[in-house]
Design a protein that fits this description.
Two copies of one chain form a homodimer. By secondary structure, chain A is α/β, with parallel strands linked by helices. The first copy, chain A, has helices spanning about 5-20, 35-40, 60-65, 70-75, 80-95, 145-160; strands spanning about 25-30, 50-55, 100-105, 120-125, 130-140.
């Protein structure tokens, strides 16, 4: 199955899983730029399970919209486990959602370093019962390929936390 | 030129126009679900001109994230000129952006009425100097086609306000 078909299938499965529980979801996205929210809302009826999305592209947006601490941004960088966990928890606290996902990474072509090369993406998933999971991925490919692989990973992690 | 190619071209032109002015943009999206933010951030370097996006899918999100008044939501509905103007102004006030776009519509297949059939989409564009424009569109096609045409319109209206 191709990447795009998989994103559609995962979005549909996620909708069914959320509807089955009566849960709303929220997203907190940096490098994917709204791609996860777009995928979730591609499914008809998604107003029943999608509450809101925060596209926090700048550090200021991460602080102001999600309550990420300036201290963690300076100490660990925006692409770090501690920041994606803060983003996911901030999205849960500032919404009516019961589950959230946060994504922060380096889509390229610029912005990479030895430590965090292009394709480095951190994910965090959190639910209202306190369960959480985080993941570091290193995707291959160009900017668009990194972003689309990150969207797929974000969706599949939401499904995994729901099951 | 196909719709997808046009969205890419408009996103690139928008990036150049924003960078040329030193302006950041913000988005406030309902029915497009983050598709406009995703298109803008598909362009490499977009962290230089994209500040943040608000994906306000529920009425509560429109109120809490953008300051849309419950009174206007009840009186005019979420898909109305007064609400998209409030959304666009709210995005400008709650960001570091100098220009914003708001989109609220009925992507379908459900949610249509005689008054506001599927494909009805309201747009508003606002900049920091107080210039603003609003538009009512009625798009043909299925859910995905309505959403993609709305993304194209949102981008082209941003460019028009910038020029």
């Amino acid at each position: 199955m191709g990447l795009e078909a998989e994103i559609i299938r995962l979005s549909q499965e996620l909708g069914e899983a959320l509807a089955g529980r009566g849960w709303m979801a929220a997203t907190a996205e940096s490098c994917t730029g709204g791609g996860v929210a777009t995928a979730i809302t591609e499914v008809a009826g998604s107003s029943g399970w999608f509450d809101r999305g925060f596209v926090t592209y700048t550090n200021e947006a991460k602080q102001q919209m999600l309550g990420v601490s300036i201290d963690n941004l300076l100490r660990h960088g925006a692409v770090s486990e501690v920041v994606v966990l803060e983003m996911a928890r901030g999205a849960l606290a500032r919404s009516d959602a019961a589950i959230s996902v946060a994504i922060s990474g380096i889509a390229g072509p610029g912005g990479g370093s030895d430590d965090k090369p292009v394709g480095t993406v951190w994910f965090a998933w959190v639910d209202k019962s306190g369960r959480h999971h985080s993941l570091l991925a290193r995707f291959d490919g160009d900017r668009q390929q990194v972003r689309r692989q990150a969207v797929r990973q974000a969706l599949s992690g939401l499904l995994a936390l729901l099951r």
